[in-house]
Amino acid sequence: MPPRDPNSEKIIDFVVNKRNGIKGLVDAGIETVPELYILPVQERLEPNKILTTDYIPVIDVSNWDDPKVIESICQAAGKWGFFQIINHGVPLEVLDAVKEAAHRFFGLPNEERSKYWAGNSPTETVALKTSVVPQAESVLEWKDNLSFRCSPRDLESYPLWPPVCRDEVVKYLQSANPVIRKLLEVLLKGLKVEEINEAREYALTASPILNLNYYPHCPNPDLTVGVGPHSDISAITILLQDDIGGLYVRATDDDSWIHVPPVNGALVINIGDILQIMSNDRYRSIEHRVVANGSKDRVSVPIFANPGADAIFGPLPEVLESGEQPLYKEVVFSDYFKYFFSKRLEGKKAMEFARI
């Protein structure tokens, strides 16, 4: 990465080193987008790249055992890698409460928020961050996030989590866990896995992470990116959107994008790299990106169902039993995780780490 200009270094110091985040920069009253946040022209999401003729499926899962529901989920995972679910059983008031909690946390004075900055937090299980890897990125993302590690052992740190949002985070996590379990049961059944035993569960969901993502309003969102194009490294991701919108998914046409419109009460589900690898490409982890809003502060709440740190994953034996050749080698999740977060987001390039 080339050296930054002095003004960009000042912004890095304010946003990262002084723990203000992009929220602090917006609160300071900036009226133009700093150069550090301006995407090269070829990387911007231009209107002519947005497809209006395709859409991501919305699936009613009120009856998980309905063969049509199972077929719809597996088909969506193979074709799109993304779908929305409704009638999933998580109460609307729980969804609304965790979104409100995100706004409450990011509405705190900076001196209160910064107590939880990564490396400064009272516990490693909660960390406030900005962008992805700001020290390694030539262009920063217009996003801060408060990240919670949520394994049973991590939850013992609950008393050290921010009081303005911890109850809502735990309640949402508890309500979403059965949905995550049902989704994985359906998706693995589509791969001829009849039962998720303890070892499989560890390789899928042992280390969940929940983020409160915050995208403050932006003076010129067309120049920036809320989150750059990437696929998730999870097994699956369960995303709660607010009503503002801004999530786009790469279409089957490589240079086009599809908006994922907010649906009240819905959860957005996407396949992560882990499940694409385990399925030997039957399911697809698809690139997605987020655009900030010019007038409103946007929040979203993803839960990443991640393997245990020392879990080893690769194509499932059930997938390969007919003689199909594996496309990926076996990988330790902590190695994949470190590789992914060692550099800026680059689409799906992280998967080359596991590819044979």
Explain the overall architecture.
By secondary structure, this protein is α+β, with helices and mostly antiparallel strands. It contains ten helices and 15 strands. It is globular and about 60 Å long. The chain is 28% helix and 18% strand. Strands 2-3-11-8-13-6-5-4 form an eight-stranded mixed β-sheet. A five-stranded mixed β-sheet has the order 1-10-9-12-7, with no helix packed on it. A two-stranded antiparallel ribbon has the order 14-15. Belongs to the iron/ascorbate-dependent oxidoreductase family.
Give the topology, please:
Blueprint: H1 6-17, H2 21-27, E1 50-51, E2 58-60, H3 67-79, E3 82-86, H4 92-106, H5 110-113, E4 126-130, E5 144-149, H6 166-189, H7 198-205, E6 209-215, E7 227-230, E8 236-241, E9 247-250, E10 257-259, E11 267-271, H8 273-278, E12 288-290, E13 298-305, E14 312-313, H9 317-320, E15 331-332, H10 333-340
Parallel strand pairs: 1-10, 2-3
Antiparallel strand pairs: 3-11, 4-5, 5-6, 6-13, 7-12, 8-11, 8-13, 9-10, 9-12, 14-15
Organism: Hibiscus trionum (Flower of an hour)
Protein name: Fe2OG dioxygenase domain-containing protein
Domain Fe2OG dioxygenase: 205-307
